[in-house]
Amino acid sequence: MDQEVRVSPVTRETMGHAVALLERFFSEEGFATPPPLIAANLQAMVDDETCWAGLADAGGDFVGVVTVTTMLYVEWGRLGEIGDLYVLPAHRRRGVAHALSQAALAWCRARGCSAASVVITPDGEQRHNLARFYAGLGFERTGRTIMTRRI
Questions:
Q1: What's the rounded Cα separation, in Å, for the pair 69 and 40?
Q2: What's the pLDDT score for residue 63?
Q3: 70/81 Cα distance (integer angstroms)
Q4: How far is the C-alpha of 77 from the C-alpha of 94, rounded, in Å?
Q5: Do the domain assignments include residue 148?
Q6: 85, 96 in Cβ contact below 8 A?
Q7: What is the DSSP string of the chain?
Q8: Whole-angstrom Cα distance, residue 105 to residue 112?
Q9: What are residue 53's DSSP bridge partners?
Q10: Is 121 within the bounds of a domain?
Q11: Which of 56, 52, 63, 53 has the alpha carbon at shortest distance from 6?
């Protein structure tokens, strides 16, 4: 059953709540980013007009977080990307992730994005069946491979 969820932008006042949720997410999923870097990177995103972060409030408690970035491409024009999406385990399957995703997509539309993407890790897919979740929101597989190099 869905619960009433309100999504609002992360602000300086709510930054600590968002960082705590992201630290928990990274720990649960086995990402190696240290907590001080999570906090610094989120602050940089909040200060950058091409990025957005939102917090989900359900019953007065912050129960989820989402981050979004945008980039310019020749192919797409401005493209949004949902980078992080996390909901506390006790609040999953209640509409929180859907509300966070919809807020992120609305923010992307308002910034003139032609599309939005999401990267799903193999672990994320295995643990949470994320492709099915995102397909339910209208995301489609592109067949592209993402390769990354640290610089």
A1: 16
A2: 98
A3: 6
A4: 34
A5: no
A6: no
A7: -----EEEE--TTTHHHHHHHHHHHHHHHT----HHHHHHHHHHHHH-TTEEEEEEEETTEEEEEEEEEEEEETTTEEEEEEEEEEE-GGGTTTTHHHHHHHHHHHHHHHTT-SEEEE---HHHHHHH-HHHHHHHTT-------------
A8: 11
A9: 67
A10: yes
A11: 56
Q: What is the pLDDT of residues 17-62, one digit of tens each?
A: 999 999 999 999 999 999 999 999 999 999 999 999 999 999 899 9
- The answer to whether residue 106 is domain-embedded is yes
Which residue is associated with the tokens 């989820």?
A: 64
Dist CA 68 CA 79 (whole Å): 10
Amino acid in the structure at residue 68: V
From the list 69, 52, 68, 61, the residue with the least C-alpha distance to 20 is 61
Q: Number of structural domains, the chain?
A: 1
Say which CATH number the domain at 100 has: 3.40.630.30
Distance CA 103, CA 98 (A): 9
Contact 82, 116 (CB under 8 A): yes
Q: Which domain holds residue 29?
A: 6-136
Residue found by looking up tokens 């995301």 in the block: 139
- 17 belongs to a structural domain: yes
Average pLDDT, the chain: 95
Q: How far is CA 114 from CA 45, 75, 78, in A?
A: 21, 10, 6
